[in-house]
Design a protein that fits this description.
With 458 residues, the chain is of the alpha/beta class. It contains 18 helices and 18 strands. The strands form 3 sheets. A 7-stranded mixed sheet has the order 1-2-3-4-5-6-7. Strands 8-9-10-11-12-13 form a 6-stranded mixed sheet, with helices on one face. A hairpin with a 5-residue loop joins strand 12 and strand 13. It is globular.
Length: 458
């Protein structure tokens, strides 16, 4: 029962946020006439977000159409009529949803009724099933438009990249990590230099951060910029040029910097909410005040306080998205993980998301050796043959680099079937490229030194 209430409250929160955003669009037509962005590429802007949901775009291929986002059912019905009118009735083969939020996915049933396959990142499908279905069915009891369709989860999912190419047009779908949600994706048309960003980049006061990691979000936007688009098509607000990506990113950078400065001054959350200001955001959106929910979210991220994402209340007890419910831990053993250093804030965050794991800290190799027989996992800095021999219960070693490190050449680790070795696989091309370039520079500068050693037989 508690889980059901939490899920329904989250859906109510998301829809409530949508209606709040819709208020700033008052006075405009609920939907605007489809805009032709490029040959065979269309954009339908929805201003009445509370009823119609997100913007919808569509791309015409030789024999079929690909849709981006499905809005609420009313928005989906409107879009389907316009898609048929602008594409000479071509079948809608795929509808790609950029993330799980209801204003992007609850219209999927209308498209599925047309024979469309719903596509999303695997995380978006999981989130949809966990958070959207019950709320949809409740809404369908009182809303005849919802009642015409079934809640339809994404049927085709992917992890990193998904390509649609019929020889006449190519669409590349990318996942770069957590941004607005854990399953945000981007659709890029390389020939037309157009990128569709969902809610990860919006054009106006539409940012909702309840499912976000803003530090990762900034990194994700940087990766989208490497696609070098000319045109940015957001899920809320008007079509814009590439500069919108930097504007969206700059908002997060400045908000985080200003909140961080206040945290350093010892200000409380209430003081930060009362005093913080980001002038560029006001200039960009035309709004007078920042979203206090977004300020609270960034404050929590920077202080690592307990996060109740369903209520936005820092002090009210509640689970974070990643936390494990206590009933799922019954019967599981208590585990120990060895770390070299950890702040109290980090320890509190770890305790929240993994309450069955005890973090033990070793200040040096002697302390690590003394703790070795007790630990089940550890950071890679302590691993050597002597440690591995003593760590009889060790099952997991985490290496904090995606590069080739000496640790992988330790036979006791490499050939050990009971120990899993993982690394920071979430590093993406730009930071790895920087790392490689740095190593190459270091190598070339060191060549004379190694040449002398080789001459001396060392």
């Amino acid at each position: 029962m508690k889980t059901t209430l939490i899920r329904l409250s989250v859906l109510s929160l998301l829809i409530g946020g949508v209606y709040a955003m819709a208020g700033s669009q008052a006075g405009k037509n609920p939907t605007e006439q489809p805009l032709k962005i490029a040959d065979g590429v269309w954009f339908e802007r929805h201003n009445d977000i509370g009823k119609f949901g997100s913007n919808i775009s569509w791309i015409e291929f030789r024999d079929y159409v690909v849709v981006i986002d499905t809005s609420f059912p009313l928005g989906a019905e409107e879009a389907i009529r316009n898609i048929k009118a602008t594409t000479n009735g071509k079948p809608i083969r795929y509808a790609i949803v950029t993330h799980y939020h209801g204003d992007h996915t609850l219209g999927a049933g209308a498209f599925a009724k047309e024979g469309t396959t719903i596509v999303a990142h695997e995380n978006a499908r999981k989130e949809f099933l966990a958070r959207n279905v019950e709320g949809y069915l409740k809404t369908a009891e009182r809303d005849p438009v919802y009642a015409r369709y079934k809640p339809t989860a994404p049927q085709l999912t992917f992890t990193d990249k998904f390509i649609i190419d019929d020889g006449s047009r190519r669409a590349e779908v990318y996942y770069f990590g957590q941004a607005h949600t854990t399953g945000c994706i981007f659709i890029f048309l390389p020939k037309e230099r157009i990128v569709f960003t969902g809610d990860a980049c919006v054009n106006g006061p539409f940012n909702y951060m309840g499912d976000s990691d803003t530090a990762s979000w900034i990194d994700v936007l940087s990766q989208v910029q490497t696609l070098d688009p000319d045109t940015v098509v957001p899920a809320h607000g008007a079509v814009a040029k590439r500069e919108l990506l930097q504007t969206q990113k700059q908002y997060f950078l400045e908000l985080r910097a200003r909140v961080a400065a206040m945290v350093q001054e010892g200000k409380t959350l209430d003081q930060v909410k009362a005093d913080v200001d980001v002038p560029m955001w006001r200039e960009w959106t035309g709004e007078k005040k920042l979203s206090l929910e977004n300020v609270s979210h960034v404050y929590r991220e920077l202080t690592r306080g307990p996060l109740n994402w369903a209520t936005g209340d820092l002090n009210q007890p509640g689970r974070s998205v990643a936390a494990i419910p206590p009933d799922e831990l019954k019967g599981l053993p208590k585990l120990k993980f060895l770390a070299g250093s950890l702040t109290p804030e980090d320890q509190a965050a770890m305790a929240q998301v993994a309450p069955n794991v005890e973090i033990v800290v070793a200040k040096g190799r002697d302390e690590a050796m003394a703790l070795a027989p007790e630990v089940h996992g550890c950071a890679g800095s302590f691993v050597n043959p002597e440690f591995l021999k003593a760590a009889k219960n060790l099952r997991w070693v985490q290496q904090f680099s995606a590069g080739v490190e000496g640790i992988t050449f330790i036979p006791e680790l490499r050939d050990n079937d009971r120990i899993v070795l993982t690394n920071m696989r979430t590093m993406f091309a730009p930071p790895i490229a920087d790392h490689v370039l740095g190593m190459l520079i270091s190598l070339t500068r060191s060549l004379p030194h190694y040449e002398d050693l080789m001459k001396d037989g060392k």
